[in-house]
Design goal:
There is one protein chain. By secondary structure, the protein is of the alpha/beta class. Helix content is 56%, strand content 9%. The chain has twelve helices and five strands. The chain has helices at 3-13, 29-41, 52-61, 78-86, 91-94, 109-115, 128-139, 171-177, 181-207, 211-227, 234-246, 250-275, and strands at 21-25, 45-49, 66-70, 98-102, 120-123. Helix 9 (181-207) runs antiparallel to helix 12 (250-275). The protein is globular, with a radius of gyration of 20 Å. The protein starts with a helix and ends with a helix.
């Protein structure tokens, strides 16, 4: 889409949703900036909460029309916060539409959102059109967890994911490379020589309950995840590092390690194909 068409599309969306007041529950500053920027461009009011506790506090203090709920937040996650919202005594607040924002494209995860009373979900990273579509759908009371999601789910019993888009972005590294393709090939080779093995070791450590090693390996993998903009596991790798270090929520960490491993193994396959390695 060219720039002119993009501006027309944005102009058409501006004001189309009315005068909504949105509660954006998101702890990532970049995601906050992007989502709030889109909402403000549409003429919508948006307030930010960075934890599930803040979501509940703001809902008690003010009236909102819709909640965009990040699933992985510190302290109280999005699923827990949504469950508490549905138990509020004030029916206006307890029945507020809730859209899950998630970086976890795991098959079956959407069932958890539905069971806790959310209306729909949106997988990050999302486009402006994706966000508009899901908000409009939920406001029409047509939110659905049964809609087609193409190939974006991770099958837990497969080694790699079946996805149609690249899971990494070399934009930051391309700026450093300044047109030097050999530099990018070298980086891809380093990734293939180290990351898949480290990722498998992290899963093995989680399976054996060696949380100190899980934390160390997650820390080691984190810089590569960031430099290659592997956004779908950016929050997971941080959760693994911190929660494994402090040995909290360990029952959830093994599945999280498996999820990260599947993404990184898939990136390895994609890099091999892109650079013919």
């Amino acid at each position: 889409m060219n720039q002119e068409n993009t501006m027309v599309e944005k102009t058409n969306k501006s004001g189309a949703l009315g005068n909504l007041k949105i509660l954006l529950a998101e702890d990532n500053e970049v995601n906050q900036l992007l989502a709030k920027g889109i909402l403000h461009f549409w003429g919508l009011e948006a307030k930010i909460a960075v934890t599930g506790f803040e979501v509940l506090e703001l809902l008690e203090q003010e009236d909102f029309d819709l909640v965009l709920m990040d699933i992985q937040m510190p302290g109280k996650n999005g699923i827990e916060a949504a469950g508490e919202i549905r138990r509020l005594k004030n029916p206006r607040k307890s029945n507020i539409p809730i859209i899950a924002l998630t970086a976890n494209a795991l098959k079956g995860e959407e069932k958890k959102y539905k069971e806790v009373g959310m209306d729909d979900f949106l997988t990050k990273p999302f486009s402006e059109s994706d966000l508009f579509e899901v908000i409009e759908r939920v406001l029409r009371k047509e939110g659905s967890f049964e809609r087609k999601t193409e190939n974006n789910f991770i099958e837990m019993d497969n080694t790699v994911m079946e996805v149609s888009e690249k899971l990494y972005d070399f934009k930051l590294l391309e700026e450093i490379a300044a047109g030097n393709t050999d530099f990018l090939i070298s980086l891809a080779k380093i990734f293939l020589a180290t990351i898949p093995e480290n990722s498998r070791d992290m899963v093995a450590a989680a399976n054996s309950g060696n949380w100190d090693l899980v934390s160390k390996l997650a820390h080691k993998l984190k810089s590569t995840v960031d430099s290659m903009s592997i956004g779908s596991v950016s929050q997971d790798i941080r959760t693994l590092e911190m929660d494994a270090k402090t040995k909290v929520n360990t029952e959830a960490l093994t599945k999280m390690a498996v999820r990260v491993d599947k993404v990184l193994q898939t990136v390895a396959v994609q890099l091999t194909a892109e650079f013919g390695l």
